[in-house]
Design brief:
membrane; mainly alpha; two-stranded antiparallel sheet; globular; endoplasmic reticulum
């Protein structure tokens, strides 16, 4: 029932708004001027012609072909070229993302129930609708970009990985690369954590588990008399929050690691001792990785076209931007008085270590901001994107501002890692942070679109909050959505040096 409610809710706003966008902006805009003609070439059956300005593989075009063919099977069957030119219009191609956005919301709903079985269908439905309203994701639902389909493929990969259907998961992983090459990092992330979860089944008496922290913070309940006996012996029991199995209580021999290094070493040792079993179970992901490496060698790099504008760069400041953007989009979890006090108390428990960690983080952040803040030519010259104004009016408003933002960056990352650490192992948190860095740091261009997948992963693993906060956040998202839509549709402008109508967008 929850799936139907989610699908109906997203469709209720997506379909009429898509019709409005197509009526006001019927012609391809921005990156659509490359994607739409390329998809239309595929509609005509021409799979050999390729626009050298397109940087991503043709996954979106294949999905559009299936989408159009499902609505017009007769025309597809008889290969009516002239008919398909009409069917693969800009509006028809954009509708691909409308359908995929509905799929994204349903996948998120199922993932949340899988990761947090006790959350309840109603709460999972609310969260799925909220994520569908996330402003950046919501906006690109109505344009012919690769981001929505990329997110759907990654979520499907994650869902089947959690269900231990590794061949299907790897298939979706390979498909996700056809939308955006950097999704290979999420393949590694899900496969690695899936392998660690697989080890828990191989070593049932030596699992590391973490409490399933919910918003209510209810105390753990006693399950049986044996549990009472164990508790009386002073052994701490924790329930595994596993999306794959039923509620499991860790045995008396369970470990509590004293440090991240100890936990990493133990995981590596177990992986090495069980390498044959793990390699056999996760062989599908190995095949995908080998194929991707072969593609890199054949292509001479990760980017398909316009390579000179997408050179891999040490853009470490991206890592900082993501922390603040994601924390701002998750206000109820980060920027509340109680949250600030909680972090201060945490730092106060070990003042020496906390002071050293803070000073080291500040020093590294100053180096990153000073030496590795890259201003891409597109960022400086294109005033159609909000990032242009954020860069000029905020980050570069004066020489001090970019340094004054460092405490906010660090607070956002500390808060994010602390929240994740309450429900995930330290190895999981470390692997997530490294994955975010590997996805974002090489990208020279600042684009909020690049932050969507790690943001959604954060929402999936953050503690559940009350309905009041969810409603407030949903209203905030809706207000931002309305603002961006009005600016895009009804506040056009013109460039003196170039004909055509320009519009504001993410």
């Amino acid at each position: 029932m929850g799936r139907l409610v989610v699908a109906a809710a997203v469709a209720a706003w997506a379909i009429p708004i898509a019709a409005l966008v197509n009526s006001v902006v019927p012609e391809p805009y921005m990156d659509e001027i490359f994607h739409v003609p390329q998809a239309q070439q595929y509609c005509r059956g021409d799979f050999l012609t390729w626009d050298p300005m397109i940087t991503t593989p043709p996954g979106l075009y294949y999905v559009s072909l299936a989408h159009v063919a499902s609505f017009f099977p007769v025309a597809w069957m008889f290969r009516l070229a002239e008919t398909f030119d009409v069917l693969c219009s800009t509006a028809a191609l954009r509708s691909t993302n409308v359908v995929v956005a509905i799929v994204c919301a349903v996948l998120f709903h199922d993932l949340l129930l899988c990761i947090r079985p006790g959350i309840g269908d109603r709460k999972a439905t609310t969260y799925a609708v909220l994520v569908a309203l996330y402003p950046v994701h919501w906006f690109f639902t109505f344009l012919y970009y690769t981001d929505v389909a990329s997110l759907a493929a990654v979520l499907a990969m994650y869902l089947f990985c959690l269900k231990k259907q590794f061949w299907i998961s790897a298939m979706f992983g390979a498909f996700s690369i056809l939308f955006r090459q950097t999704n290979v990092i999420w393949i590694i992330f899900f496969a690695a954590n899936g392998a660690i979860s697989y080890l828990q089944d191989l070593y049932p008496k030596d699992n590391v588990s973490h409490e399933n922290i919910e918003a209510t913070h209810q105390p753990n309940k006693v399950v049986s008399g044996r549990d009472n006996k164990t508790a009386s012996q002073g052994l701490r029991r924790r329930r595994i929050n596993s999306p794959i199995s039923k509620k499991v209580v860790v045995s008396e021999s369970s470990k509590v690691y004293n440090s991240l290094a100890e936990e990493v070493w133990d995981v590596c040792l177990k992986l090495w001792n069980s390498k044959c079993d793990v390699l056999i179970a996760f062989a599908p992901f190995v095949f995908v990785m080998v194929a991707f490496v072969a593609f890199i060698i054949w292509n001479g790099g990760i980017v398909l076209g316009a390579k000179e504008a997408h050179v891999v760069s040490p853009h470490f400041a991206q890592f900082m931007y993501f922390s603040l953007v994601s924390a701002t989009a998750l206000l109820p979890w980060h920027f509340t008085p109680s949250r600030v006090l909680e972090l201060f108390r945490l730092f106060g428990k070990n003042k020496t270590c906390s002071l050293l960690a803070t000073l080291m983080s500040l020093g590294l952040s100053f180096i990153v901001v000073h030496f590795f803040s890259i201003a891409h030519p597109y960022l400086l010259a294109d005033n159609r994107h909000y990032t242009f104004y954020i860069w000029r009016k905020v980050i570069q408003v004066n020489w001090m501002m970019k340094y004054m933002l460092i405490p906010l960056y660090l607070y956002s990352w500390f808060s994010t890692m602390n929240v994740l650490g309450k429900s995930q192992t330290r190895v999981w948190v470390l692997s997530f942070v490294l994955s975010v860095a590997l996805v974002l740091v090489p990208a020279p261009l600042v684009e909020f679109r690049y932050y969507t997948i790690p943001f959604v992963i954060l929402v999936l693993h953050f503690p559940v909050i009350g309905n009041g906060k969810l409603l407030a956040l949903g209203l905030l998202y809706a207000a931002v959505d309305l603002f961006t839509l009005v600016m895009f549709l009804f506040r056009p402008f013109h460039w003196e040096h170039e004909p055509g109508t320009q519009r504001f967008m993410w």
